[in-house]
Amino acid sequence: MRVLTALAFFSIHVAGGLFALHAFGGGKDQRVQLGVLADLLLQWTVGGTSGWGSGAAIALLLGAVAACAALALACLVVLVRRRRETAPVPDVFLHLRAMLFCASACLVICAFVLSTAESYAGPFRVRFPVLVECTTALAYGAFALWSISLPRLRRILPKRVRSVLAGLSLSLPLLLLSGELGLRGLRGLWPHPILVTDTSSSEIRRAAGRRAPESLLYGFPINSGGHYDKEFLPRSELSGPLVVSIGDSFSYGTVPLPYHYTSVCERELPGVEIHNMGYPATGPNDYLYLLENEALALEPDLILIEIFLGNDIDAIGKTSTAPRWYDADRYLLSTVAFRLQSLKKSDIAHTAGDDSPAEQAMRQPWLDDPFLEEPSLGEEIYLQVETKCAAAICERTDQLVWSFRHVDFLKALVRLERAAGDVPLAFVLIPDEFHISERLWEGIQRRLEIELDRDLPQRETLAWARNHGRAVLDLTPALRAVAPLRDGERHLYHLRNMHFNKRGNEVVGRELAPFVRSLLDGNLKAGAPYRPDENLPSAPDAIPAVQAFGGVLESLSLDGETVFAASLLPLSKAEIRAGVFGMLKTVTAPKDITNLTNAAVLLAYFQDGVGSDAASLNDLGPDGAPWRERVQREMAELTLAAELMAD
To answer: What is the C-alpha to C-alpha distance for residues 257 and 357, in angstroms, rounded to an integer?
Structure first.
């Protein structure tokens, strides 16, 4: 046991010394980053910077890290000496407690000090990993220094003091562990938005955004379903048509209910009931949940899905980079601490929840005069948020690339169509503020080096809708048609908030009314029930076509550089594609889906117009372009179609 204990501590000090050397080398390689951080630190602490000051700070940091490597060597010497003297490692558990304390202190510094917030919701990440390496090396150095100094500390510190310090060494890790577990347990019982993270279940995220029934929002009670509307009456108690509008924070809105666009639309359509359904921090997958579990049960005549041309496109299906062990958003305790700090420091405009309508009017004079509104976010932070969103969805590209990039968004639209069944379903496209504000768009363009296409999300979503025979209302033209006010801005959104103010809600409600009326009257078709597989053969009928295609593939040598004449196929490409997709709609095993998708993609290597049985992909086709371009584009189209079919 003594040998194993000595070997374990020997390994710890070897690893600590090597890591300290690694951190020292990393710090030398990233002196520029450290210099910038040193300048910021000096600016914050003494109000100015200097070349010698930042240089001294870097030298001090790297010197301390190098000293940690020297301490590791000293600890190894002590261990070797004890081994020769056959003396055991003293106070093993005390050493373990000290090591646990140093590790906990390192984690606290990384998660609570070195991590920075990108927004209120996160992520909270360490932007410069070199600082983590140096901090970890220093934490090890503190443990090594304590190990060497332990005999001397025993002589100079009274026993009672040593007992207190030993107890305190356990308090930090126990406090961190109990706090983390306690918050995670609380989140399951009370899903408050401040406790919700990207790793939370969809049920918790939905519950976090849904207010309690009867709670007041802008003086109006939330209904029993948690939605910002009056109580939803049973279909039997309604005399006119029923429309259900499903959305996210735009459904909750940031104005009193009489000014909300669904209320405006109702006033424009006497006799039509519009149920406003939805809540913040949701997206297309949550709309599907509401559609299946709440909207269809109301037996509506029409369902509207409000699509925000921002995070509804970009966030869905996106798996954010997993937080590292030292990032704040890896832990709920540090995440909550950052959010509380943000709330304390932010200059967010007051939006009361429990005031009467009269009090709301007094608190929100900007309802009628947007020039009186205080900003929800600082100018720089808001511009960063909008720039990030524009870069994600508006980078100039062609339709196929955009569809691939946002295939999860398109899949979500298909799921909504399927779930609606025979109930008429239409989409409403809500633009982000940068789609409407010229000044904001110009600021975004100045920040980005990539080429942007401002209307790309609208254009591609409308193209998808046309292909599916689905009615869509794009609100962008109506909002852009509003005349600017005296400062040149239209002021349709709350100030740096990206949600409609009273003016914006009024425009949207008036634009929505004729769209809804046309759908209810049958002048505009919401679209037939989406059944992409109704003309595909059943699995038994599809097997012969797939087997015949497989036989051709076995007889040919597909090297990825050759295109073959479509006449070599035993059936037409359309028949083989229908057969592959017919089987694809029935299989569930991932391996079968992959094999059938690959088979569909290989159809692109068979083209009409190949002069002989085969040609090189670099040869020119009938259109004067290399075969490679046509084959690659068709491969992409087939891959996308297969993904949507298999979903």
So the answer is: 10
CATH number for 214-317+373-521 (one of 1.20.120.80, 3.40.50.1110, 1.10.8.640, 3.10.400.10): it is: 3.40.50.1110
Q: What backbone torsions phi and psi does residue 425 show, to the nearest 5 degrees?
A: -130, 130
Alpha carbon of 3 to those of 7, 64, 94, 95: distances in Å? 6, 31, 18, 16
Q: What is the pLDDT of residues 26-43, one digit of tens each?
A: 888 877 667 666 655 655
Residue 276: exposure state from Cβ atoms within 10 A (0-12, 13-18, ≥19): buried
State the DSSP H helix or E strand holding residue 277, giving kind and residue range, or none if neither. Answer: strand 273-278
Dump pLDDT digits (tens) for 594-612: 888 888 888 889 998 887 7
Lowest mean pLDDT among 187-196, 228-237, 623-632: 187-196
Q: What is d(CA 250, CA 430) in angstroms, rounded to the nearest whole number? A: 9
DSSP 60-128: HHHHHHHHHHHHHHHHHHHHHHHHHTTPPPS-HHHHHHHHHHHHHHHHHIIIIIIEEESSSS--EEES-
> pTM, whole model, 2 decimals?
0.65
How far, rounded to the nearest angstrom, does the alpha carbon of residue 611 sit from its chain's CA centroid? 49
Query: Contact, 252 vs 228, CB < 8 A?
Result: yes
CA distances from 71 to 76, 137, 198 (A): 9, 11, 41
Backbone region of residue 87 per phi and psi (left: phi > 0; alpha: psi in -120 to 50; beta: other values):
beta
Q: In this predicted model, what pLDDT tens digit does every residue of 415-452 receive, in sequence order? A: 898 899 889 999 999 999 999 999 999 999 999 989 99
Reported as a single tens digit per residue, the pLDDT across 160-188 is: 888 888 788 888 899 999 999 999 888 87
Q: Which residue has the tokens 């295609």?
A: 549
DSSP state of 317: T
Rounded CA-CA distance 602/574 in Å is 13
DSSP secondary structure of 460-482: HHHHHHHHTT--EEE-HHHHHTS
Mean pLDDT of 278-300: 90
- Residue 446 makes CB contacts below 8 A (sequence gap 6+) with none
CB-CB contact of 144 with 16 (8 Å): yes
Distances (CA, A) of 251 to 24, 40, 281: 53, 42, 11
User: What is the arithmetic mean of pLDDT over 121-143?
Assistant: 86
Domain ranges of the chain: 2-189, 214-317+373-521, 539-646
CB atoms near residue 513 (< 10 Å): 19
Which residues make Cβ contacts (< 8 Å) with residue 372, sequence separation at least 6? 365, 366
